[in-house]
# Entry
Amino acid sequence: MVKVKLVGATGYGGLGFVETALRHPEIELACLVAVEGAGKTLPQVWPYMQGFCDMPIYAPDSDEALGADADVVVFSTPDGVGQAGAPREVAAGRRVLDYSGDYRFNTTDLYHEYATRIGKDPVHKAPELLTESVYGLTELHRAEIAKATVVGNPGCFAMSCTVGLAPAFKMGLVEPVGVVCDCKTGISGAGKKPSAGFHYPERYDDANAYRLTGHQHVMEIERELSALSGSDVRVTFTPQVVPMTRGIMSCLYGRLPAGMTQTKVLAGYREFYKGEPFILVKDFKEAASTGMVRGSNRAMLTIACDERTGTFRVISHIDNLVKGQAGSAIQNVNVMFGLPETMGLDQPGAHP
Amino acid sequence: MVKVKLVGATGYGGLGFVETALRHPEIELACLVAVEGAGKTLPQVWPYMQGFCDMPIYAPDSDEALGADADVVVFSTPDGVGQAGAPREVAAGRRVLDYSGDYRFNTTDLYHEYATRIGKDPVHKAPELLTESVYGLTELHRAEIAKATVVGNPGCFAMSCTVGLAPAFKMGLVEPVGVVCDCKTGISGAGKKPSAGFHYPERYDDANAYRLTGHQHVMEIERELSALSGSDVRVTFTPQVVPMTRGIMSCLYGRLPAGMTQTKVLAGYREFYKGEPFILVKDFKEAASTGMVRGSNRAMLTIACDERTGTFRVISHIDNLVKGQAGSAIQNVNVMFGLPETMGLDQPGAHP
Amino acid sequence: MVKVKLVGATGYGGLGFVETALRHPEIELACLVAVEGAGKTLPQVWPYMQGFCDMPIYAPDSDEALGADADVVVFSTPDGVGQAGAPREVAAGRRVLDYSGDYRFNTTDLYHEYATRIGKDPVHKAPELLTESVYGLTELHRAEIAKATVVGNPGCFAMSCTVGLAPAFKMGLVEPVGVVCDCKTGISGAGKKPSAGFHYPERYDDANAYRLTGHQHVMEIERELSALSGSDVRVTFTPQVVPMTRGIMSCLYGRLPAGMTQTKVLAGYREFYKGEPFILVKDFKEAASTGMVRGSNRAMLTIACDERTGTFRVISHIDNLVKGQAGSAIQNVNVMFGLPETMGLDQPGAHP
Amino acid sequence: MVKVKLVGATGYGGLGFVETALRHPEIELACLVAVEGAGKTLPQVWPYMQGFCDMPIYAPDSDEALGADADVVVFSTPDGVGQAGAPREVAAGRRVLDYSGDYRFNTTDLYHEYATRIGKDPVHKAPELLTESVYGLTELHRAEIAKATVVGNPGCFAMSCTVGLAPAFKMGLVEPVGVVCDCKTGISGAGKKPSAGFHYPERYDDANAYRLTGHQHVMEIERELSALSGSDVRVTFTPQVVPMTRGIMSCLYGRLPAGMTQTKVLAGYREFYKGEPFILVKDFKEAASTGMVRGSNRAMLTIACDERTGTFRVISHIDNLVKGQAGSAIQNVNVMFGLPETMGLDQPGAHP
# Structure
């Protein structure tokens, strides 16, 4: 059994981890930690958990949290929390997986740029852990994740785009310049905290783009694509919110290189992701939607290049709370501890 | 392993059964049968099932369907189908569970009245099976279900109301006359077939009551409550549709008998449902909602009598597709085959 | 032209008044007042208003607000605001219409009980205005409203229930004891302020009842029905929230008096509301829904008594923001100033 | 008064026209015509219209429809209907405005290509009317519309994209090659007819792209942009459906020409649309959403070029049923008959 200490257990990312862990035969929730809800049980915060997970929630600095018997600590917390907490956990012999941007960049320079962009202190609090951390996009970094002490789980938008573009950049299926990521997300991506824009009456029949000057997720995407292509990649990123709860649909555009065709792109993607349990590659004639991956850890990629205009086009569909967050985390924990990668992730969501 | 032949596999009720069966350690889907989709695989009809359940769908009269190696046949089909098909299945040594009204009444007289009300042929096609069939409300008929050859699964509205009123009628906590069931359902209760009233633009911000002259579900409720109270019970039933996909919230009203109090009613419900794994009884000060049982096989009952006006009031919350349909079916299969009653049903739904 | 000073212009109730005023040929918005948004223009708070209503928003105690050239002041504000502000307005020669509970009760005793129930100071700040104020349910108090200095606009739930029950209590179509109001509201009824329960992901597929111990609206209903019937009426009230933005559907139940029939109740309602421009009385065989009154100032009443069980049943549908709030306010302003009652309210909403 | 005969009065496009006409001081609905609902009144099909528009619906070939006293016939009908009907109307002295693709192309060659693409008979039934018809994008063809006998109203997607790209192509603010239109629509764009994909439970939390091989609307866009730029423009078009009822949000991408900046593009758009009553041009720092134009005839354009990547980006927001359909039709009727262009269109929608 892999014993998990879950920090940030009462947010959506924490709940998703608990839900999956409950059906995972080799993960044991050793300790739930959170600021909000500390001193209560999980069902006292989230009544639907009553009888399924009645564990207490401990404050981060409580004896129970600090002394938890855990193999790995999952930080489902905002930027800054895992960064500060990881050294202590690692010193205590625990491995770490962090949902935030704290460990998505493995140089202090890149972190500095990222932190500046989101208005945080640009000096990382654990630079030695940062430099040895691994980016947790399993399909691209499986071997390093298996050995990593600290894993930085990808952001949900970045997961959607990077999974959708990796084969193209690795195999030269798209011109590396001028790529556009047009990304539509459901509202759960913003977390559980109420806000004016996500108040039900304001949101129920409304769509909008936001943060058009730059969004932190673009850095992750560019870093990964640059590494895959060997060039300095820049992409245009348009985050949008549509009135649904779960799901990201990212339309990824670029120019087709001379001689490149839909058939070749499709074949390239199928080759690149051959054997991957969570990546479905589809021709544009096949049905695809966010609803088809809702509740599952899958990315569904529709290859739909437009030869008439010379346009590369791939549409990536994920559930932002699963492949975009907790599912991906479970997948990484499986890899980190030598478990079958699909363990606990072998079920579809509930339809409708 | 209990081998299940599932008829009507491509409707919402069928999908719900498949989803649960996939995580049930002792249920094996032996054969999927449906009219719609016959000749295809399940993912060809419902792509989200790809890789999770890739089974073929057979036509009802195909050799594969007729010769399936199954212990039990689950009819997730409209009225009339299970009725006609059950005798053949029973003759072949299979037990039967039917989702429709075909086996919810165990006398030809009651069936005659029911069928007349819904505009069907009032002569039951398998009267000998009908008379020995058992009403599948597990909490009320557990022992008979365990031995039953044919089980008639309750309707979703009836489940919601009967579970919510059974203690009151059995224990005299409500006057048996003048009870009102005010029931709000999500739209999935109407099944997958598109219709004008459930077209997204017509339904997204709209609520209405329907079939105010009588709804077939009232007969089940009245039959059960009459049996529990020993009197001839009649209830007023108001089915309503609200713009959500899953969930039934039924507000159940009546008159408090002289001397009856909220405290006594609450104590009665707790006593009646003591030890029941799927029934949660709550005081009105505790939070409750359909969302809290979404995806689970639970009924959440809020006891909220109004002593100021002498009004008995209980609010019953279920997921119409789980406790109201497929979950209840799995629960009954567990009981029929001597499995732990919560097997496959021990997980919460996904939130949000 | 009737010149209106609108206090609380940036809430949903204020916006609804502005929207209707913009198409009303005899209402002129003289001054917009609000705490939130003071110092900005209306479109700076609500961009959809740009070019339609670009007026500045003044703080309540600003010179512009205090010195506004207005015939009537509409307080679209929380409890307590209109109470404190009305005397000053009346002294300045302006009439007052208030959306809150401040002027719904015309005795200090009743107000004391109401304020206690909602946890406010039970001593009214303007008792002399209170005692001469008129309850703004136009269909019941038209003549008094025409002459009133201060009108207290009904609450949305109370409007729905009182309009739906008034004929029955006045004409003896229902037993006056044991009446139940089962009321489902859309979320806009809670206003624009974000909260955990109305955060989109928490609300999109969820229904619940709330405040089961008592809701302030019941007092209005009971006071009106008592006056109509000449007895001391008490009703049971169950407020519920369903995932829609606009609309209230109230199912109103009681016992039919001996000899009372659906036909007689229907005839009574048609008689009672004969000539009323905003009340539609329908037989249960006719379609009705909240969507059918969405955006209009109508109440649609479905008469659906259940003679089989002796149950009186009327279903009342309104748009909580129109007939339940701003539309009703406009209707009252029309009456107060001798304008045609339907002026500005003669258009349907937009479908879908 | 402009007398309008409205064909297809019972669809969403027809209802939108009726709703606006009801508040338009110079439009009179002379005759409602439809296949579905013929012989009934409008409220018998759409009860919310009761008392607002109680007109009868006539069959297309009825004497009442053929002999209607009308100045203009609005065909809110599928492809093929207006084409066949227009000659007769024109012969009777009526002008024609058609919502479908029948009169969006003014050469038989273009029509041939369009009709082939949508699987219709490529031979136009009224080529002489076709060649003199005018494309009804008012902002681009105002003068011709004023004199036109037959106007072809733009498709909703095409409206959104063409309005959003016209200044760029006219003024050289974007490279004319490689433009991408990433378009998200609400579901009302598909009309009132129920279908599996728009059944509420299938759609409530789902987003997808469709018709990725080509969508009829691209031809309109390319024709207009080619005319504006003087080159042969081809765009990539990705239609998507998201779970809302009203609204189109189109993200329009291209390459910035050398030296082009966000500031220059913004200035260009403001210049191009100076004085246009229905076009709002916004900098990316200003809030914008489909909700902000819901119910109004506006297009809200957010200029958000990404200089870092050299990417031109404009986001166009409209209400697909207003500026994308009935509102645009009213605007054109105003122009055709010399009325003020904003008449009947001078009000915001209802919020929320």
Remarks:
- Residues 7 and 33 of chain C are 5 Å apart (CA to CA).
- The interface with chain A takes residues 12, 186-188, 192-196, 198-205, 243-245 of chain C (CB under 8 Å).
- DSSP finds twelve helices and 14 strands in chain C.
- Chain C has a mean pLDDT of 97.
